[in-house]
Amino acid sequence: xxxxxxxxxxxxxxxxxxxxxxxxxxxxxxxxxxxxxxxxxxxxxxxxxxxxxxxxxxxxxxxxxxxxxxxxxxxxxxxxxxxxxxxxxxxxxxxxxxxxxxxxxxxxxxxxxxxxxxxxxxxxxxxxxxxxxxxxxxxxxxxxxxxxxxxxxxxxxxxxxxxxxxxxxxxxxxxxxxxxxxxxxxxxxxx
Length: 191
Description:
The chain is an all-alpha fold. The protein has helices at residues 11-21, 23-31, 37-40, 42-51, 55-70, 99-111, 116-124, 132-144, 149-157, 163-173, 180-190, and strands at residues 83-84, 89-90. The chain has a two-stranded antiparallel sheet.
C-alpha cells in the first residue's frame, strides 16, 4: 500500500485511474469538441460498459437514426414543425413536445453532470444550436433511459442489426402505435 495515495497505486497510476473515472473531465472534453470525444464521452462510456457496444456500433446506431430523422443535417423539421437538429428533437415552442428539455434532464441524470452547454441549452431551447456531438449525447441519454432499451441494445450488441429498427421505433421515435407500421416502412426504405 502506498502511504501517499492510500490505494496501492503510485501517483501517476492514481492520476490515470482518476482521469478515467472523472465524468466532469469527460464532459468538458466532449463539449470542447476534442478529437477523441467518443473515447471521453460519458454516454459512449456508459454504452460500452453496460451494453458492451463498440464505438463503431454506437456510431452506426447514431448515424442511422440521424439519417432517418434528418439525412444527417442540422435542420428544422419541414413545414416549420417542432423537430430540430440532426435527431429532430422537439423543442418546447409552438406545437413541440418539449423533448429537448427532457433529454437535457436525462443527460444530467445519467452522467451526474451539468456542463455549461446544458445550462445554455436549457435557456435557449433550440437543439440546432448544439454541436452534433452534444446532440448525439442527448440522443444516447434518451435511448439509455427508455423503458425496455436494455434488451434491444443487448440484441444489437450481439450482432442483431435488425434491433436498430426497434431501437429507433421504441426508444427514439416513440410515436403512436397507429403510425408504427408506416415508420417501420420508412426505416426500411431509408436503410
